[in-house]
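Researcher: Let's try something more involved. This one mixes different molecule types, so please make sure each is placed in the same coordinate frame as the others.
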Amino acid sequence: DTEVTQTPKHLVMGMTNKKSLKCEQHMGHRAMYWYKQKAKKPPELMFVYSYEKLSINESVPSRFSPECPNSSLLNLHLHALQPEDSALYLCASSQAGTTSYNEQFFGPGTRLTVL
Amino acid sequence: DQQVKQNSPSLSVQEGRISILNCDYTNSMFDYFLWYKKYPAEGPTFLISISSIKDKNEDGRFTVFLNKSAKHLSLHIVPSQPGDSAVYFCAASPNRDDKIIFGKGTRLHILP
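Model: All components are placed in one shared frame. Result:
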């Protein structure tokens, strides 16, 4: 299995809603990532988990809360989002550690619209 | 401050000819470079990579060239095919860090 899967594909939520994005991989990768991508822009890194521990938080607002329940799963909990948070949210995974290079494999993304 | 620059937002190439996508970087700590291809409504797909100890890496129709002294890399696609029409992102990673930094992308159009 060489895939990163993300659910849901599309999500529409109000500013008072609480929702979660899910990501799963079964490639044995121990690094997992959340990116945000706005239209015609490159992916912007939000969070990195390495061996199930949060290793990088790119100063993301607290209304985004990541969680890594185990080595195959990565969640992004959303609460009190703003319309400007509407974007494509991409999950990626890679081998971790200093002995491996960082070829990240991306999921198809969740298209989020905040009303 | 952009550390990875793709100065051409778009490029049109005739089918069957060579497509050359360029990328410049500013951070001398980058030691690993990647190219990703992205179709609309899909996540980026890894294409090819090169480490700083090499100056060329080839995989089928795709070749990446690295010029460290000029801090420049390029992706060559030959022959170009209609399915190559997509946005191509150059990315770089410092010292096997978990973080990779993307350029803004170049939209490649393959013309019939």
